[in-house]
Design goal:
The protein is an alpha+beta fold. The chain contains 14 helices and 51 strands.
């Protein structure tokens, strides 16, 4: 493979939007013995799609999809360790000033918007992309990253369980009552949309006035970095900070309530102090420079725990600035907890920064036990539902006849799925609802087919355990109501329809229903690994259907779902641990929480003896009773094996007994379901590594440590299978698990760029979308959005993505290289894997080795895209993949 000269370092350019869960039987299942494990090495357990998981569509991207970063704003990392490592602030400021002066001397136009020194040494600056690329070569610059937009996950507000269920699931209620732990004396910083400190559950007076109650008895400090109107996605929007970190969005108040509400809702740590760092306006997005400012401030303010219920989905690189800063803050004694991400339906490698930080406690989401949901009735039987996002308004009164799209079936082409419009039966009544089953095609397709056939509502039932919150967004618009019910309820309705006319009566209000997915991973919870093959998340906690505080103007209490809700549960748990053990380090807290967690049953086939993939659940469900009472710790709470290109892995577990008596631990292992195939549609399988332990038993004297070694190897005969499990240490009164994960074969052998049919391909703007083109259609006027695009899909993260352009020869082959002294027209680094088809534009310009911007002349060209695989060696040809476009034509529009 041809190597291009590399005059300039690649601009670090992640492009995705940040985007920004107790019955005695359940408790026995989770805190008692693990379920018996299924046998059968190599068993094929189906793919995500065969289990009804609906991954994001890979259709044509829109023009807005290529504008994920904030235009002309960058984060510049400067050489030198931050204040957290002992460097004086004055020294860091001098280094930053020096970089700016050198840049200006080189003719670069740099405006410094903000300086960071506490947890990350760098600046937020405004400058053109061309100047940002040139800034890479300025002495003293370590890296340049674009400022990314930050979007909070959408609310899922249909259900409202009591928060007591979540606390009971993890044993928090027990340690509150029996041990008296409540978080008193610990301060938790909440970096979010603010906190409504007027809410009585959070120490407020109950009067909706941001100038009252702050600082107060519970929300004791904080800062508003943005003001009400800031929206980073709107051109010209600028932050307007003030001293009142109130919340008009609701997300932050909900998070704060999970951590520490004390009133109608009882949080995990109801006496902990809250520090509110507001980074979102009332609506819209925020940005990573604002997050860094909030992290810097929280660290300087001396908080004990920081919670960030936000994350850059698919930005799985550990060196993105927010992840770097998180690691630095943790190293200086502050526990950092972050959500693992809500992109589980998109497959593996779907976490994000800051949660990918190696020292961060990263949290996945588990479904709650009970929920109060809207419902309809058939006779005297009530059926709880969630309403689909972007569907029509669900009635609260009236009756409608329910028809079935077909008999219940697991076949991929069954009529009950309503995927084939020709097979959807016609309504027999003027107003009639259609019962359909999840699977094969999208929720939108099912709803659109029913709507087109003339139905006035859709009742969608699940094809696995649990209640889902679907979306029916798409074209055509869905104007009829679409509601989602459980699999068991759907089967019951099928029987009722078969027995005779079935009418559903829409009801106003809510009713309580058991959550069929209780104690299982939430469908939205993201999978690891990190780009560097690090194991994430670390553990899981209730995050599905959580009732907590919201701003007074929104009613004071409400329900949301997401890893955003799981993360504060663990942040509150960390506060309880610090109350119990005031001198503990973040790593000690992490070990206690992670290594006492309980591995969970596999959510897609529960009750069959399989355990959830370790790279989705981490160590398992938080077990607060065990965490609060453990006298055993593990030096490194998780184990990341990497790939198997160098053969077997030898790992050492350093175990310490801090009890007053000797303890003997039985040592064993268990494995979780593995994933292989395409990261966007994982193939599940039993793929158990060989684990040879140094001993099956170890005795440790009081206040002493011992080492347990394990030789872990695999011989799966396939690259890219993510496997893992738990090394278990079991004494008479403790059961600890150390999770491990790795990838089979050689990471450099996985296909990254060409794994999806028809991609990459040239693209062209057509209305609001970018569509594939070829031949004469690949002619561009270079006016407005009419520029060449490359449509592509990355199956895995990549170290670098280089774009080079060549003059085309008459025979359609590559001729001379455009911009030969630099070798590329753009070069960007640290991209996460794709969640959907992406579009990379070339505006027809390039920057020469001397920094001059030049426009390519009219003529025919070929675009070459090259990617260096994650952890690849740039000097090893086989670590690269490349693609050449068809011939394209530039024909500039004349003025």
């Amino acid at each position: 493979m041809r190597h291009l000269p590399a005059h300039r370092r690649a601009l670090l350019s992640p492009r995705s939007l940040l985007t920004a869960g107790a019955a005695a039987a359940l408790a026995a299942a989770m805190f008692g013995p693990l379920p018996a494990q299924a046998d059968g090495q190599g068993d094929d357990l189906g793919t995500a799609s065969s289990h009804g998981v609906e991954a994001p569509a890979k259709g044509s991207p829109s023009l807005d999809d290529v504008k994920g970063s904030v235009p002309d704003r960058y984060l510049v990392q400067v050489e030198g360790a931050p204040q957290a490592q002992g460097t004086p602030q004055r020294t860091l400021k001098t280094k930053q000033t020096g970089v700016v002066e050198k840049a200006e001397k080189d003719g670069l136009d740099v405006t410094v918007d903000q300086s960071f020194t506490h947890a990350w040494n760098g600046m937020a600056v405004s400058m053109t992309k061309a100047d940002a690329e040139a800034l890479q070569d300025v002495d003293g610059v370590t890296a340049v990253y674009p400022v990314m937009q930050v979007a909070l996950p959408p609310d899922q507000d249909d259900a409202s369980p009591e928060d007591e269920y979540a606390n009971a699931m993890t044993g928090v209620d027990t340690v509150q009552k029996v041990d008296g732990l409540d978080g008193e004396g610990v301060t938790v910083g909440v970096i979010d949309s603010g906190v409504d400190y007027n809410n009585p559950d959070l120490g407020g007076s109950g009067t909706d006035d941001q100038t009252k109650d702050f600082p107060g008895s519970r929300v004791t400090m904080g800062y508003d970095f943005v003001g009400d109107d800031y929206d980073s996605s709107v051109a010209g929007s600028v932050p307007k900070p003030d001293e009142y970190p109130d919340d008009c969005g609701g997300h932050g108040t909900h998070v704060a309530g999970i951590i520490g509400a004390d009133g109608d809702v009882t949080g995990v740590a109801p006496k902990a102090d809250i520090a509110s760092y507001r980074i979102f306006g009332c609506e819209g997005t925020s940005s990573t420079d604002v997050i860094l400012a909030a992290m810097d401030r929280a660290f300087a303010d001396g908080v004990d725990v920081i919670n960030m219920s936000l994350g850059a989905s698919f930005m799985t690189w550990d060196d993105y600035p927010t992840a770097q800063a998180s690691n630095e803050i943790t190293a200086k004694g502050v526990v950092v907890v972050a959500s693992g991400g809500n992109e589980g339906e998109a497959g593996t490698f779907s976490g994000g920064a800051p949660g990918v930080g190696s020292d961060v406690i990263t949290v996945g989401s588990v479904e709650n036990t009970d929920a109060h949901t809207p419902y309809f009735a058939v006779g005297k039987t009530k059926y709880g539902f969630t309403s689909a996002e972007d569907g029509g308004t669900v009635p609260t009164s009236g009756k409608v006849v329910l028809a079935s799209a077909g008999e219940d079936s697991d076949a991929a082409d069954a009529p009950v799925l309503a995927c084939d419009p020709a097979e959807v039966p016609k309504p027999t009544k003027k107003k009639q609802a259609l019962l359909v089953k999840r699977g094969t095609c999208s929720f939108h397709d099912k709803a659109a087919n029913a709507q087109e056939a003339g139905y006035t509502a859709v009742v969608l039932y699940n094809n696995s355990a649990g209640l889902i919150s679907p979306t029916v967004a798409g074209d055509p618009e869905i104007t009829i109501p679409v509601v989602s019910i459980t699999q068991d309820d759907g089967v019951a309705l099928q029987k009722a329809i078969a027995a005779g006319t079935t009418k559903i009566a829409w009801k106003d209000g809510v009713a309580v229903f058991p959550n069929a997915g209780a104690g299982l991973m939430s469908s939205f919870s993201s999978y690891g690994l990190t780009a560097e093959l690090g194991l994430k998340p670390d553990l899981s906690a209730p995050g599905g259907q959580i009732y907590s505080t919201v701003p007074l103007e929104q009613g004071g209490h409400g329900t949301k779902s997401g890893t955003s809700m799981a993360s504060p549960h663990v942040a509150g748990a960390a506060a309880l641990m610090l109350q119990e053990h005031a001198g503990w380090t973040p790593k000690q807290v992490k070990s206690a929480l992670v290594n006492t967690a309980d591995p969970l049953d596999w959510s897609l086939e529960p009750g069959k003896g399989y355990l959830e993939p370790v790279h989705r659940q981490g160590a398992g469900m938080l077990d607060m009773v065990e965490a609060a009472h453990t006298s055993t710790s593990v030096a490194e709470p998780t184990i990341s094996l990497g790939d198997s290109s160098q053969g077997a892995h030898s790992v050492t577990v350093n175990v310490r007994n801090d009890g007053d008596a000797a303890k003997t631990y039985a040592v064993s292992t268990r494995t979780g379901v593995a994933t292989g195939g395409s990261p966007s549609d994982p193939a599940f399988q039993v793929a158990d590594p060989s684990v040879r332990l140094s001993s099956r038993s170890v005795t440790i004297q009081p206040h002493r440590s011992a080492l347990v070694t394990a030789r872990i190897s695999e011989d799966f005969g396939e690259d890219g299978i993510i496997y893992g499990g738990w090394i278990q240490l079991t004494s008479d009164d403790e059961d600890l698990s150390v999770p491990f994960a790795g990838m089979s074969g050689d990471y450099q052998n996985v296909e990254v760029l060409g794994a999806h049919d028809g991609l990459p391909v040239l693209g062209k703007a057509q209305g609001e979308n970018i569509v594939p083109v070829s031949g004469e259609d690949a002619t561009y006027s270079m006016s407005g959005d009419d520029v060449p695009y490359v449509l592509f899909y990355l199956d895995y993260p990549v170290e670098r993505l280089d774009v080079a352009v060549y003059h085309a020869k008459a025979d359609g082959s590559k001729g001379k290289l455009v911009n030969p002294k630099v070798g590329t027209v753009s070069s960007e680094s640290k991209w996460g894997r794709s969640s959907e088809t992406e579009a990379l534009p070339w505006d027809g310009t390039y920057q020469t080795a001397k920094g001059k911007t030049v426009s390519a002349k009219d003529g025919t060209y070929i675009i070459e895209v090259r990617v260096l695989k994650a952890l690849g060696d740039p000097d090893t040809a086989s670590d690269w993949e490349s693609w050449d476009s068809e011939v394209l034509t530039l024909s500039h529009q004349k003025p």
